[in-house]
Amino acid sequence: MAICDYGCGREGVVQFKNGKWCCSKNIASCPSIKKKNEIINKEAIASPIKTIEKCDYGCKKIAKFRLKNGKLCCSNNYRKCPGKSKATKINTNKLCDYGCGNIANFKFKNGKYCCNEFTGECPEIKRRYKESTENSTPIQTTELCDYGCGQIAKYKHNNSKLCCSNNISGCPVIIEKKRITRELPSTPIQTTELCYYGCGKIAKFKLTNEKLCCSESHNDCESVRNHISESLKGLTPWNKDVPCSEETKNKIRKSLTGYIHTEETRTKQSKARKGVKKTPEHKRNIGIAHTGKKRKPFSKEWRENLSKAGKDKEVSIETRKKISKSKTGVPRSKETRRKLRISTIKRIENQVGQISPNYNPNACEIIDEYGKEHDYNFQHAMNGGEFRISDLGYWVDGYDKDKNTVIEINEPSHYTPDNKLNERDKIREQEIIEYLDCKFIRIRIDKNNNILDIKIINEFGTGQLAQVLCA
Q1: Which residue has the higher pLDDT, 130 or 192?
Q2: In the 8-state DSSP scheme, what is residue 74?
Q3: Assigned CATH topology for domain 361-469
């Protein structure tokens, strides 16, 4: 009976090409090798330091890390240290012994030459590894998946087993096993021992792998997180600038549809975002992402919730000043001004009831005189009340509905010092003409109510102006 040559003392089951016997099909599964790898991984966890001392592994560089075994090293992993490397840099015309065809730059202790310091970086070794990992062949069969999910097998793996997926990890049974393993609880303990993963804290949990940890999961340990962060620095993610396929987008969309975060998760998200200020670049990116997109209208329920949230909410003076400052000098569109006018009128009506604007009795007499002279019957403040254009939020001084004619009396306050009509009145006039498509009469009077001039706009529906001067 052959004994495992790797020192575990178990019976040898497999003989490798190098003639050695092993208790497992894979050398990494041998308990003795596992223990060695565990020690190596312990040493690989390092803490950054600042010192003038040299690396303990003989490379003569300044040490930058203290490993878990207490030794100083120029790298966060002693295996990356030039002093620990199995390769010696050389200048030669020999080709790489691993078959890539490149000039060899390093010589290993086993006498072989390679184009890279590590064999794993050789293009030929990479190609072989890629071929070995492409371990499934599509097949057509009526046999079931060997992993027990009950589905028809679609692939045959290199281990001769049939599977429903091109990767064992895609089989529902394996997915469920992994989920159960992930959800196995860690056991709270009381001990004075330190965390196995090297953070220096007292262990509070015993994990399912029998190791002690300061957190419920080893992924939450500060030392592990720092180690992962350091190992990923400077690396480009494989999916950077790679757009998702439509199939992937649909899968993500389907998995998230209808998902509701728990109250605890919402609270955590809220706390994490509070006080975080977006950079100008971040704001610009958000703006670009939303350019051309129109927001969906708020639902009735959403509007009611907004209304409830805003009611009885006092806005501080500081906030009011900020709002005022942000809006100062910002021109409002015609539509925005119209909405503001209408909302203001509605708010006043809700507070005091029906309203009507102030009026000049002398102006009403001028309107009546002009109406009798030119055969108009104007509705005004003293004759049925001023006509209200609800959709625009305007009242006009006088309106003849039958002849679709509007008349306005302008006191001196409607003009600038150089006798030009105020811009505000011009905009109002234009909006009324566009909405009613009416004839518009503007009579200018002085402070003694004497008529100075009369202008008739849009008399024939063309927007043309006819002016009559009155002495």
Answers
A1: 192
A2: S
A3: Trna Endonuclease; Chain: A, domain 1 (3.40.1350)
Residue 465 has pLDDT above 60, yes or no: no
- What is the edge-to-edge ordering of all strands in the sheet holding 155-157? 136-138, 155-157, 162-163
Minimum mean pLDDT range among 264-273, 277-286, 323-332, 340-349: 323-332
For residue 341, the 8-state DSSP code is H
CA 20, CA 4: separation in Å to the nearest integer? 8
For 68, other C-beta atoms within 10 Å of its C-beta total 16
- Is this prediction's pTM over 0.85? no
Q: Are 15 and 6 in contact (CB under 8 A)?
A: no
Token code pair at residue 433: 């003409």
| Residue 408 buriedness (CB in 10 A; 0-12 / 13-18 / 19+) | buried
Would you state the structure tokens that stand for residue 54, as one six-digit string?
């040299």
Token pair, residue 419, equals: 């006798």
The per-residue pLDDT for 125 is 84
User: Which residue is listed with tokens 């190791």?
Assistant: 211
Q: Where are the domains of the chain?
A: 1-44, 137-231, 361-469
Segment (H or E) for 251: helix 246-256
